[in-house]
Structures are given as structure tokens and as C-alpha cells.
Amino acid sequence: MTEFEAVAMKDAQTAVSPDGETILLSVVDAEDHRLVVRLNGEDLSRMMALMLSTTMDAAARRGSGGPVPPLPKPLPVDSIGVGLGPSDGEAILGVRVGSAGLSFVVRKNALLALCDDLRRLFQKQVSAARH
Predict the structure, then answer these.
(1) Are strands 23-29 and 34-39 parallel, antiparallel or unpaired?
(2) Are residues 16 and 46 in the same domain?
(3) Domain that residue 84 falls in
(4) 36 CB contacts (<8 Å, ≥6 apart)?
């Protein structure tokens, strides 16, 4: 990997290209230099996976004693899929947001717990709607 000097980010913004095919990412550094990058769905998926992986690595290096950052703004999910995992105790969970998609390996017991939570949530909503 090539070494480079990290610069402080002053601002970052995103936009959709006029044709709707790509995401434009604009980053401005502390010296007001601007970089604009076009990302198609595949590039965006790889970038999101890389950022998640790097975030997990950073958290592991810090240890669990640090403060828990606030949750980011929720993203609207366009689709969710589940498939057989690499082993008997795992499943693949695929999530698509716009043109970007991520796949996660999830322990089946964690996926079952999620299904139970979703079932309870919807039962509460149905119950509240009836009253």
C-alpha cells in the first residue's frame, strides 16, 4: 500500500449524478482543496464494506473500554435477503440500499433473535392500531 499524508476533512457532501447512475462524493480538506469522486453501485458497495471493516479493526485496536459512538441516521433499506451461510451455524444476510448492497455472515441464533424481535415489534404495532 502506498504511504500518504492524511489531511483533515473539513466537509463532505454527496449527490446523485444527473443521470441517476452514480453517487457523487465531494470532500473538502482543511486547506479548501476539493476532491469529487463518482461511485457506481458496485464501487459504493465495496467502499461501504471497506469502511465497515476498517471501523471494526479500529474498534478492536482501541479495545472495548472506549465510549460508544451515537448511532448514525438510519438508512431506508430497499431490500433484505437471506441465504445459506458458509457453515451450518451461519446465514448470509444481504441488504440493499439504493444501488449499493452489502452481505454479512450472521450466526443463525442472532438471525433468529432478530426475527423474534421483528415479530414482537409488529405485534405491538398491530395491537396499537386496533385500539
Answers:
(1) antiparallel
(2) no
(3) 41-61+77-131
(4) 24, 25, 26, 27
Query: What is the b/e burial string over 7-19, where b = at least 16 CB atoms within 10 angstroms of the residue's CB?
Result: eeeeeeeeeeeee
- The β-bridge partners of 96 are 79, 101
Claim to verify: residue 51 and residue 30 sit in the same structural domain:
no
Nearest Cα neighbor of 83 from 112, 57, 106 is 106
Number of domains in the chain: 2
CA 32 to CA 59: how far, in whole Å?
A: 30
* Single-letter amino acid code for the residue at 31: E
pLDDT tens for 15-73 read 988 888 888 889 999 889 999 888 888 888 888 888 888 877 777 777 766 666 677 77
C-alpha angle 6-74-124 in degrees, rounded to nearest 5 = 155
**CA–CA–CA angle 94, 97, 101 (5° rounding):** 40
Q: Do residues 30 and 54 both lie within one domain? A: no
The order of strands in the sheet holding 9-16 is 9-16, 23-29, 34-39
